[in-house]
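Hi, can you check this record?
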Amino acid sequence: MDYRSQNPATGAIIGTYPAWDDHRLEQALSRVEAVRPEWQGMSVTDRGALLRGLAVRLRAGGEGYARLITEEMGKPIREARAEIEKCALGCEFFAERGPELLADEPVASDARTSYVAWQPLGTVLAVMPWNFPFWQVIRFAAPALVAGNCALLKHAPNVPRCAEALEALFLEAGFPRGVFQWLPITHEQAEGIIADPRLHAVTVTGSPRAGRRLAALAGAALKKTVLELGGSDPFVVLEDADLERAVAVAVTARFQAGGQSCIAAKRFILVAAIADEFLARFQRRVEALTVGDPSREDTDLGPLARADLRATLHRQVEDSIRAGAQPLTGCRKLDGPGFFYMPSILDQVGPGMPAHDEELFGPVAAIVRVRDEDQALAAANRHRYGLGGSVWTADRARGERFARRLESGLAFVNGLVKSDPRLPFGGVKESGHGRELGALGLREFCNAKCVWIG
């Protein structure tokens, strides 16, 4: 299996990277095992200083890294710049808070002294996706590394230049060679090293199918896992919502990154009292989006990342229409080169349709109509995924009650569902388990060691 960099806006092949043979993989594993004691022996403060240096380099080269993202996976350049800035902020957060969050935690007991010591597990294999090719890696690596772990990255095969740039960034920032390594390896090789005693944990961001497979292998080897899998986030609009604000955020929530985000709003659950008005406003804004070259400053929506992803999305749309969904706008491929798909809205979506039951990983909004708040909550929770969700209402207390009843790892009231370095990120049900980011994410790959002194 080769790693292939292809511009999704034109279809042009930029370059290929042959997968490593087993000998090169073994060299990488030996390298990380050799450097691990040195890395774990550094203070949290010193490791954090390296992360701060990484943030400086991210910002200094930000325009180049953003254009690399845009060329390799098709994200509009404005969004790519924002992704790089978010990476820098994430590095700075864990550099600043690491010493405090990893400090020994005193616990009163029958001992003279007892406490919890947060110690690194060792080396973590990260299987990462292409949709946020820098941020997905940094949001795992920053907390894992500041905690004293080493990181092995098995990145998506269609973003090898991003992976290569990330590894170079860590080296240029002064991280010891081997602490962070990109492994251009096959799926079979990645599965094979999970049982290796030099590997101590696995984190996966991807599909439920990939998560199940890798988690089963990790479980057989008794290795810790964090799984951040798919999502079909509900965007619930109640009758007292500020519709102008809700519609504006709805467009961003569904169509940023070309709709290719696990926490994108995918099911728009509208109560009857406002459904028609919301939908009319929403459709006008969706039809005004500029689709085209993602390197242009005025582009709102670029291509999908790969041809097969577009084909899958279009099949889901067509199957949903055959099952009774009503196409309001878009719902077709854009003619010409590249993997473009028109921003789309499907109305009258319900259970049994792919647009409802599956994850639509692309620029298609599914409209689900309900009678009232109770039906809205039932519809929001009636899904195998449980990553994020939002509710829109003028009554803050009502919104908070609704959010607490959502079966999800993230619940937002009158706001865009997003990841934030300060807050835990992750899901329930088939969206996975474990947390990234925040204090919980920092401690996921730590041994919470009890120390008792009599």
Q: What stands out?
A: The chain has 15 helices and 20 strands. The mean pLDDT is 98. The two ends are 57 Å apart (CA to CA).
